Amino acid sequence: MKTQKLFIKDLSDDFKHSSAYLECCISDYMDYAKFTGERYPRPALMIIPGGGYGYCSDREALPIALRFICEGFNTFVLRYTCKQKYPTPHKELAFFMNYLREHQKDFDITDDNISLIGFSAGGHLAGSYSLYYKELGEELGLDVSNLKPLGIVLAYPVINVGEFSHLETRDIITNKEKELMDKLSIEKHVTNDYPPTYIFTTLTDTVVPPKNTFEMIEALKRNNVKYLSHIFEVGHHGGSLYTRGVYHEFNNEHLDAINNRVWVDEASDFLFSLIKGEK
């Protein structure tokens, strides 16, 4: 696997004061490249960690990137600017979406196959970006046709930034401004142009109420957006891959949720169905 960090301040004067960067994980195709010397493009998956917009969670970053490399993606972890209100992290995401599209051959990305996966507050970033990528691109002077994700994966996401939100997420990204609370409550603004979505949560999540996911599912249904959902019975918030390696902080006493790891298979199959153009 080839790795690289791309610092946004080195790529654009519009972000010269930003600390955001992209961690690129590109498959070197193991034995294939050694024996053939050929390059094999893959679909891309940009990974957006959670952390309440206060930090980027490590367990929702490189562990996810490595797992989805094994599923057939080239992966890119967005370390966005934290503790800033909208649209700071959203514009960073828009910039890197455009950058990957413009340089897709350099990163061995198959044509127009870039999807997003976001966890918790990162799910809110992915989900709200998917509402407003056009206006974000126009503000940055980017080619808007480069900015829409093929599909999105929302993992125990913050959807509402009003009455049933995660308070830290809400307060940081909206700065407690009522207008932004309405604009960034994703379920209120979904249209039939919204990207196909895989979404999951757990019924025992006490950090981000499962109602966030339920409301999003209803919004997707109302607008005839292709989606797949999975509501797991148990599991703490922030389960990531639900493997022993990333779930250890719960002292193994909650490994009854280890079966939740099936979400990776479901999400990968969902995204590949979009690449194949399945209905």
The spatial strand order of the largest sheet comes to 1-2-4-3-5-6-7-8
Cα end-to-end separation:
33 Å
CATH superfamily: Alpha/Beta hydrolase fold, catalytic domain
Broad CATH class: Alpha Beta
Largest sheet: 8 strands, mixed
Structural class based on helices, strands and sheet pairing:
alpha/beta
Average residue pLDDT: 92
Tell me what portion of residues adopts beta-strand conformation: 15-25%
Q: Which stretches of 5+ consecutive residues score pLDDT under 50?
A: none
Can I get a quick summary?
With 279 residues, this protein is of the alpha/beta class. The chain contains eight helices and eight strands; from the N terminus they run E-E-H-E-H-E-H-E-H-E-H-H-E-H-E-H.
Task: Describe what you observe in this structure.
With 279 residues, this protein is an alpha/beta fold. It has a single domain (2-275), classed as 3-Layer(aba) Sandwich (Rossmann fold), CATH 3.40.50. It is built from eight helices and eight strands. The chain has helices at 31-36, 62-70, 88-102, 121-140, 167-174, 178-183, 211-222, 262-275; strands at residues 2-7, 21-26, 42-48, 74-79, 109-119, 152-155, 197-202, 227-232. It has an eight-stranded mixed β-sheet with strand order 1-2-4-3-5-6-7-8, with helices on both faces. β5, α4 and β6 (152-155) form a beta-alpha-beta unit. α3 (88-102) packs across α4 (121-140). The radius of gyration is 18 Å and the shape is globular. The model has no long low-confidence stretch (mean pLDDT 92).
